[in-house]
């Protein structure tokens, strides 16, 4: 499958200009609030008509400004799952699923109910009405209802953001199965690095109506837009929470790179986390520093030294964890940094923002 998007659309002061090809798998649209993710999804769904440009799916033109062609939403055969499940309250789960099948094309029967029920583990819920379901169960049924229509493309706009952490964790494997077994391409909007790293085969990072990075999650998520819309480069350290010290306002964690001291969180001991360390916060030293307040002190080997604008980006391998440090050219020269050189890394506990610490399992 290939979805080709080349559109320009204005909404008040907001201007979206996107040229993008999306293929099979789960493509995550990621970016700060107001960056245009929902607008892009609505353009693909046919809920908004772009000012200019075209959208084509497998060569079938859905929108084209020049020829004024516009295929209405119900003819595109797209499944759409929103933040809230929007189930019919008067129908049982089975009734909601069967309703979805009514939108399957005439010449093709709807998806097999048993298969969808198995895929999403909703068998025990079939005779219940939505009012008696938990948030996570409702969302699973909404996914099932979308699948029953045999969509050619599934759009999911923050489908898990209303769920608490445990419900999210329970439903993520279902979405993975949908991605891998149902074989339907998915365009998935999310704010959560945790969801995106786990689910996406490809990530499109958006900022202010533009695509600013496209690639595999591990390639592009080292550059994350902040809530203010700025781009912030950094690296993720994977660690396990080992303890808390509320009096000191600290959480302790252990990573392959060494012990980490983080701002206090309520993530339980034993949980796996990722901590986003901004490149600008990492200091480098060639000798072990003594008598300083900085709590995080790691050791590693210089992997690469690359010029990045007026600064230098140094990648350091810390026992398998890769940390990026941005330093001035002057510092890089005075330290004599070269590949293979052992270095000490320092960053303060407070240099990792609370929202830069994510639970992964
Ligand atoms: N109907 C509209 N008229 C004018 N401006 C609009 C309209 N709808 C959305 N916008 C603006 O377009 C921009 C993009 O909105 P959009 O909802 O696509 O962002 P988003 O990335 O999905 O954000 P969020 O993550 O908060 O859902 C925002 O600045 C928003 O205020």
From TrEMBL:
GO CC annotation terms, alphabetical: membrane
GO molecular function: ABC-type transporter activity; ATP binding; ATP hydrolysis activity; molybdate ion transmembrane transporter activity
Keyword Calcium: no
UniProt xrefs under InterPro entries: AAA+_ATPase, ABC_transporter-like_ATP-bd, ABC_transporter-like_CS, Mo/tungstate-bd_C_term_dom, ModC_ABC_ATP-bd, Molybdenum_import_ModC, Mop_domain, P-loop_NTPase
Domain (ABC transporter) ranges: 2-233
Top-level taxon in the UniProt lineage: Bacteria
Classification via Gene3D superfamilies: 2.40.50.100, P-loop containing nucleotide triphosphate hydrolases
SMART domains registered for this protein in UniProt: AAA
Transmembrane segments: none
Swiss-Prot/TrEMBL keywords: ATP-binding, Cell inner membrane, Cell membrane, Membrane, Molybdenum, Nucleotide-binding, Translocase, Transport
Domain Mop, first and last residues per copy: 291-356
SUPFAM superfamilies: MOP-like, P-loop containing nucleoside triphosphate hydrolases
Pfam families for the chain: ABC_tran (PF00005), TOBE (PF03459)
Membership in a protein family: Belongs to the ABC transporter superfamily.
Protein name per UniProt: Molybdenum import ATP-binding protein ModC
Species this chain originates from: Ciceribacter selenitireducens ATCC BAA-1503
């Amino acid at each position: 499958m290939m979805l080709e998007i080349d559109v320009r659309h204005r909404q008040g002061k907001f201007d979206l200009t996107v040229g993008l090809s999306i293929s099979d798998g789960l493509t995550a649209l990621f970016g700060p609030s107001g960056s245009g993710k929902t607008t892009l999804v609505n353009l693909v769904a046919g809920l908004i008509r772009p000012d200019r440009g075209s959208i084509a799916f497998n060569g079938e033109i859905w929108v084209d400004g020049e020829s004024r062609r516009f295929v209405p939403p119900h003819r595109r055969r797209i499944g759409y799952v929103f933040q809230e499940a929007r189930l019919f309250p008067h129908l049982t789960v089975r009734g909601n699923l069967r309703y979805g099948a009514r939108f399957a094309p005439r010449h093709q029967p709807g998806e097999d109910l048993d298969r969808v029920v198995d895929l999403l583990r909703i068998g025990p819920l079939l005779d219940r009405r939505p009012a008696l379901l938990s948030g996570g169960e409702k969302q699973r049924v909404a996914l099932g209802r979308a699948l029953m229509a045999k969509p050619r493309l599934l759009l999911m706009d923050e489908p898990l953001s209303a769920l608490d952490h445990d419900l999210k964790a329970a439903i993520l494997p279902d979405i993975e199965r949908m991605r891998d077994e149902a074989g339907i391409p998915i365009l998935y909007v999310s704010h959560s690095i945790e969801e995106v790293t786990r689910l996406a085969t490809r990530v499109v990072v958006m900022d202010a109506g533009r695509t600013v990075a496209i690639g595999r999650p591990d390639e592009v998520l080292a550059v994350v837009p902040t809530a203010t819309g700025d781009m912030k480069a950094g690296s993720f350290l994977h660690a396990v929470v080992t303890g808390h010290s509320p009096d000191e306002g600290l959480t302790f964690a252990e990573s392959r790179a060494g012990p980490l001291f983080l701002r206090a969180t309520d993530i339980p001991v034993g949980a796996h986390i990722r901590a986003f360390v901004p490149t600008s916060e990492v200091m480098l030293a060639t000798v072990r520093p003594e008598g300083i307040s900085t709590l995080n002190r790691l050791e590693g080997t210089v992997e690469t030294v690359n010029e990045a604008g007026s600064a230098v980006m140094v990648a350091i391998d810390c026992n398998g964890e890769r940390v990026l440090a941005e330093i001035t050219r002057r510092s890089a020269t005075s330290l004599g940094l070269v590949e293979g050189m052992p270095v000490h890394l320092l960053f303060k506990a407070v240099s990792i923002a609370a929202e830069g610490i994510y639970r992964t399992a």
